[in-house]
Amino acid sequence: MKAILETRDLTIAFGGHLAVDRVSIEIPEKKFTSIIGPNGAGKTTFFNLLSGQLSPTKGSIFFKGNEITKLSTTERTRMGIGRSFQITNVFPNLTVLENVRLAVQSEAKVRYQLFAHFLHYKEFVDKAHELLKTVFLEGKASQLAVNLAHGEKRKLEIAMLLALNTELLLLDEPTAGMSLEEVPAIIDVIKKIKQEKNRTIILIEHKMNMIMDMSDEVLVLYHGELLAKGTPEEIVNNEAVQTAYLGGEYDAELT
Ligand SMILES: Nc1ncnc2c1ncn2[C@@H]1O[C@H](COP(=O)(O)OP(=O)(O)OP(=O)(O)O)[C@@H](O)[C@H]1O
């Protein structure tokens, strides 16, 4: 197994509180890894450390064997780590297609600066259409982003994240704030990315059915520490995990 991402003793303290506490993990390339844990376990903070929003108090992070612990978010994105909220600046008064086209165009400029003027507008539009198909939003291409339903906006964000063309995707609760009817559509989008794209995905989620269905491996954080890791089956049968969830911090969604 080749690890695309590795953390060693990754730790961050806020005041005296260890939000992430000596977490050492290896994320296998092209696999689907989920991170679960009760509320306040440190999942989002861990993502913030991976994407560079936060600097660790201790420990290190390696991407494809290179240390990235001190790199900025932009540098990490350029290297191939994409996080959905980095591109949540959807322009509400542009169409869905234009939003994705701009994301494709800006990515092309960053990556192919030397050749930028040889790239054509039509190629950007074609790529944008392709991404909209991936997220099942093609039918809304000419609508203004402002008029999308919440779930559709999340799909648009995912399309814009895909436009960044990063090898690693960090998805932080992509179904958060959605109505029950909207959730299956996002699950379909993520499944499609998993099937179609040659990418490594790390997902933070509370919805256990999603975890069970999609993950190759599950990591469990608890009070900032890595409590367990294993296949979805191993995790649901893990006694320490059951105790962590049932020991007074039970999350109603984790059923
Ligand atoms: N900037 C900050 N300053 C101080 N404390 C913080 C900060 N960010 C997070 N924390 C604390 O760190 C702990 C971990 O929070 P985090 O948001 O990472 O948990 P989580 O597992 O993502 O929770 P949830 O499932 O509710 O989103 C919490 O106790 C939180 O209050």
UniProtKB/TrEMBL annotation:
Keywords: ATP-binding, Nucleotide-binding, Transport. GO terms for molecular function: ATP binding. It holds the Pfam family ABC_tran. The keyword Ubl conjugation does not apply. SMART domains: AAA (SM00382). PROSITE patterns: ABC_TRANSPORTER_1 (PS00211), ABC_TRANSPORTER_2 (PS50893). Residues 5-248 form the ABC transporter domain. The keyword Transport applies. Signal peptide: none annotated. PANTHER family: ABC TRANSPORTER ATP-BINDING PROTEIN, CONSERVED COMPONENT OF ABC TRANSPORTER FOR NATURAL AMINO ACIDS-RELATED. This is ABC transporter ATP-binding protein. It comes from Virgibacillus tibetensis. The lineage of its organism: Bacteria, Bacillati, Bacillota, Bacilli, Bacillales.
